[in-house]
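Q&A log
Question type: sequence-to-structure
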Amino acid sequence: MTSQFLTGLGLVFWQGLVLAQGLEPGPAGLDAVAERQRIAQERVEHEADYLQAERICYGRFAVSDCLRTARKDRRVAMDELRRQELVLNDMDRQTKALEALKRIDSNLEAQQKKQQEPPAQPETPR
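Response status: OK
Response body:
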């Protein structure tokens, strides 16, 4: 009984902490799968742009400087895509955590209701 109480108290604490931090799930209109596909497509496009820039650089006189610039542009683009991907991952984690908290909360409520019900009286034969 005491461990259930402490577990329930801990869960309420964590739920309050999550809600206080404003960790609500992402916007309802955000399609995570579509966003991940867009990020993957942009990665492919940036990689193709880099390869093309690399080919152009090898045709120039100042190859090293051109390659350095191409690598910098590629790194900036890839870093931005990685940042976007991390935001999506964070939103997924937060959504799953809130769903788990809600599921645990409903299980605790059901368990408490079950404990509060009076035990069934066995029927006596007449």
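Response note: The helical segments are 2-20, 32-58, 63-116.
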